[in-house]
Amino acid sequence: MACTYELQNGQVKTFLVGSAFVGEVPLYHMILAALLTGALAITVANPTDLVKVRLQAEGQLPPGVPKRYSGAMDAYSTIVRQEGLGALWTGLGPNIARNAIINAAELASYDQVKMTILKIPGFTDSAFTHLLAGLGAGLFAVFIGSPVDVVKSRMMGDSTYKSTFDCFLKTSFNEGFLAFYKGFIPNFGRVGAWNVIMFLTLEQAKKFFSG
User: What residues form the membrane-spanning segments (predicted)?
Assistant: First the structure.
């Protein structure tokens, strides 16, 4: 598990376990580090994510409907001009929850999935095993984080929602619970591919530096 924990910010690691810590990092520390770094990262990146969601929504408008933004830079300036600077952090709450949950789910599940696979006869600690473990971690992360991801995207694309809870209730009542898993397959494709590349790279780096 230590190799996956190395993804986390060095300052978070020092804060949680101390600079002199030696040995296997406890699972709850890995999860906490993932939650903290995920929350910090998305707080900085929220304006970029907001603009991405708004521009994606523009592309789904029916023919003849005028677009609000001509591009990314125009979207930034229009949002600030019409809605205020703070609007760039619309949906920050669910976005933090989404990023923190998915980060934690990925890091906490990868090694568990890999160890389960290695118990199956014929499987060894190979690149194929790491690939399956990365896909498994991605599947688990998307399954856990998809409802929050949907709420986050809807709040960013539609400013009429009063709060995260309001968005959750309206989506649930109007469309049913399965609405929180819309786009599950493409989302899994993106997160799963990211996990495979990330964990394969980490495993290879671990082997390289360990001799």
Answer: 27-45
Residue pLDDT, tens place only, 85-94 = 999 998 888 8
Query: What is the reported pLDDT for 36?
Result: 78
Number of domains in the chain: 1
From residue 51, alpha-carbon distances to 38, 58, 112, 202 in Å are 19, 10, 36, 31
Instruction: Evaluate whether 200 touches 134 at the Cβ level (below 8 Å).
Output: yes
Rounded Cα distance between 31 and 165, Å, is 25
Contacts of 125 (CB under 8 A, 6+ apart): 118
Q: How is residue 155 annotated by DSSP?
A: H
Which H/E stretch holds residue 108? helix 92-118
pLDDT > 50? residue 5: no
pLDDT in tens, 6-27: 444 455 555 555 555 555 556 6
C-alpha distances (whole Å) from 95 to each of 48, 49, 83, 129, 148 are: 12, 9, 19, 31, 8
Domain range for 198: 2-209
Q: Are 95 and 46 in contact (CB under 8 A)?
A: yes
- pTM, whole model, 2 decimals? 0.66
What CATH number is given to the structural domain containing 100? Answer: 1.50.40.10
